[in-house]
Specification:
It contains 14 helices and seven strands. The protein is an alpha/beta fold. Strands 1, 2, 3, 4, 5, 6 and 7 form a seven-stranded mixed sheet that branches.
Length: about 325
Amino acid sequence: MEKKVHTLDFEKPLRNLECQLEELLESSRKSEVDPGRVSTAAKVIEAEIDSAKREIYSNLTPWQKIQISRHPNRPYTLDFVERVFDDFEELHGDRTFGEDSAMVGGPAKFDGRSIMVVGQQKGRDTEENLKRNFGCPNPEGYRKALRLMKMAEKFSMPVVSLIDTPGAFPGVGAEERHVAEAIAVNIKEMAALQVPVVAIVIGEGGSGGALGIAVADRVLIFENAYYSVISPEGCAAILWKDRKYAPDAAGALRLSPQDLLEFGVVDGILPEPLGGSHRDWDSAAGSLREALRLALDELRGLAPEQLLETRYAKYRDMGVFSE
């Protein structure tokens, strides 16, 4: 499927250069302009593009990183599944209420080893976003994810969780079906899973919606993703009484990958192609593949008792408190 170009505000100078290059190459195809002159001009513009990319993307603010994490062309869970895993078989339903297309999962192969993949899935257009509920799972989505994790435990399969949600769905139906309880049960049960669990924040990691599938032995995050107790807009609405202060909230929340690594909330940061994962899906998938291979190799030889002990210690060590 051809991806529609979507330009963020701070990317406009770069996009203008890219348009100049496209116009130059297009005009050269339609006319008899000297190829040497075109090639020289193209190289000048390409150098300017490369310089602009490095200047823009090496000095991103937390709010700009959040904008990249939400980029509509960013690879989603099923895009990574297609590129990283083999023989994926999607399973459906929570065996209690119904199917939730905002949460996907099923068994797959990774380096010849059987694993269980779960993750939130957003849509590419209006129709698919309605089907996927904009990546905001209902309680049945979390119950489906837990069903698959328990299946993985039964067959001694590691669990790989791909996180990309602004948060669990806060609608009336979700509350009636106890979304908070579903997330709480997942947190409790994941803490006790006797198989390795690796969670990777590939885009948005919003609140309990993310945490419901993120209790893991290794938590990794892409360099332009975020993981936070609340969205910047929600924080701004509470503290500043106005969502327009979301950029300020993004800085105050300390939700960037570098801050999260410093605080011990995540265990590693995955590099992205220059400009973000939306510019090169295959390269982003390569980063995920290598990081996942390393994490699973580190966890491979641990007995269930060791997994539970180190996982418990990992989460007990988080945070700061005083008596």
